[in-house]
């Protein structure tokens, strides 16, 4: 027998590695933090907590604990119940969204290669698994998951620090319905690194899609796109790197195309997407030479293929690459002049076109995803921020400057919410608090983005771009001079002869200044009317080209600054969660820990200060009214509403759960709870309350459904005998139980059934042989057939002489030809079968027949024949050399309700008095009630579906007068056949005789003092009743009595369960077991 406990990779048979939550560290130093992270990382424990903040170390290998087992384990579990995991944080976000009805977000931060993109994938995968929904919701889930490979193909690339580095920022909002089902989404993308399209550093690659297309395209695609080997293309061969270890570009290409299909991009648009990608590659092979003072295409043959793929006339492409249109105004007149470009300007124009095409194509893909999952109105959402990490390269340009600026902003959010705002809140609420010092990087953010007094680096850069001439000589020197004048004395800024240095929160970064770097801040390109011959490409550039607007064009730096601030505002409106990713080495190898790199990240991420604030602070804080609304259900005084001051109501709740006073503090408007365990105590008690109420509702609903089901079955059963057979007294209102043998506790009977064969009916019946001798048989009806089980004495073997159960007969539904019954009120019926028939007697024939007819019709697809006549004939089994023959059963009118049998030759005469009229069918629904017998609560049982798994609960009406069903597991007393239950005399003489006066004297002689005189028995004032059947109470609130017992009737209830008093005990009993006197 297996253990019922869940196995987990960190819960059993493993050594303890450091501490799960670094708030519990004995020493709070950088050394202790680094040592703990290293110890856990080397033991393959990549996740660690600092309170609610998750620290994730990139293992550089696939870990074994991201399966469905872990998803099931973390779903609905408290944080402390399982080892640290990203699934725990994901589940916490999802539950908080549903509980608090507030939007959530997770900020994943860390340097390039720390594992942020993978973390985002696991979060989206977990939420997709645990949230419900139908086909529409599943479609949204598919798009959310398929958006990852598509955006990674077009937005990720290999760098020297990361083989799958995100070269764009992505904020993915998964939108949910009120029921928690993901029914929409939205992606916001930030600053794609366009410069990678045209140039890469050594040991780096262009975007993945280029290599995927070259390796994975089929022959037809390669021919139409003019695909060659990667070293043929100037935009790919600069770095000399074409392959990435562990990456299958051909397979990834198929996944990219499949993702476009799932998202709903039409086939012709997919083709044009690939044509643009191929066209950019061929465009890069166009080179220019200096001819006089202007640039000239070196080889015009190379114009044809990019022009074909991009839908541009080759001559016009050549013209626009080597010249530009310039507007001139003189004396109120406008004039267009074509200015010829030199070699450098022509090369810049070519690259600008390539970058613009790729950036617009990327925007199109993002918009296609948004259109596929957009919803008209937002309800709840969980945002996942996966953005480029902080990075320092050998040469750092404009893109690295923008990337590091965005990371500064994210670090500022973390500081504002986890260090600064938390401490300020304690002071405002009057909580005792000792301030903890930390580095606030707002000063660095201001250095970069300030507009005035003094202007920041981005403002100075925009100003230089606005005054920069076409060729741009001297722009680098101008920028350095202006920067030195504006921020030269800033403590986080230094300049040098070829650039400047910014002291970021993660370290000093030197940025080189060149004319090309400055040009990257300019976004205006005047070639778009070239592309208007292609409808698809025209849609990528929706701007009005004929506008007379003369304002300064938007620069890349101003755009990223606006996007970063919009992102911060969006995140501040959500409840934030944090994942701090750490990169353990630069080798990208597992179990390789570089001490200095780990320490550096621990320092600049502010983990030590984070631990100190968390250790001294409070894990949970909530406004008084919100706290009351959530936990009011815990006490009667607070539910449904607290009448009094909110603060007193909160105190009342905390005291009601016996929370220690050192675990919470009361602020001016909020309550602060110190440890998560204390909060989970409140949540657990709240869930128990709701569980209790839910069970009551479920019980009532199931009771209602079972009652309706029962009424339907009773009506169906009554219709079988209606106008055809007289009914017994009390038969109309008899309950259906199904299992009268207690098969759950009778393995000797269940051995003849299949392992999980369902039992519809089971009872002990009388079977009559050819001589009309009565033999006991256990009759069992299942969806597979009818079983007749008898008992025989073992004649040989080790069990010789023992009585064993034997399967006497199994009747398949296909072999049955009909059923015969009399028109009298007897309990006999004949099962007609192809070989020989069976004459049986059962007190529960109506219930058996109704279930048999239903199962027969389900199996054979036609109704079973049933006949009613007072002369029945049945065939007997052939024995020996003699023929089988037949027997006759004749029913006659007699006296009384008990059938009398008289056998003579081959005929059996059965005499019985008149019963209820044949037209008796309407049963009194108000005399029914339900009762549970045996088993554990929560499992349903309906008549006709017994033992589907295990009989745990049986809903029944009051028990039949002829017998009482046993509790499951109890021994069932054998039932005396109806025809042998003759009128019995008074058996009171068998009771223990009255002790008389001598008995009283004996008791008095052995007692120390005479007992007080017994109180006279009060004369009964109310009605009394006499038992006409024996009843044995099944539950503690029921009474028991024998036939002819007389006792007090206290209350008659229309449900059929009356209240009486027997020998001083009050209890319930079925009203149709007695008669009033």
From TrEMBL:
Gene Ontology molecular function, alphabetical: actin filament binding; ATP binding; calmodulin binding; microfilament motor activity
UniProt cross-references to SMART domains, sorted A to Z: MYSc, SH3
Ranges annotated as biased composition (Pro residues): 1009-1021
GO cellular component, one term: microvillus
Residue numbers spanned by region Actin-binding: 564-586
Region called Disordered, residue ranges: 965-1024
Domain Myosin motor: 17-687
Annotated SH3 domain residues: 1020-1077
Name of one Pfam family that matches: SH3_1
Domain TH1, first and last residues per copy: 725-914
A GO BP entry: actin filament organization
Recorded superkingdom: Eukaryota
Binding residues for ATP: 110-117
Family per record: Belongs to the TRAFAC class myosin-kinesin ATPase superfamily. Myosin family.
Function per UniProt: Induces bone resorption, acting probably through a signaling cascade which results in the secretion of factor(s) enhancing osteoclast formation and activity.
UniProt-recorded name of the protein: Osteoclast-stimulating factor 1
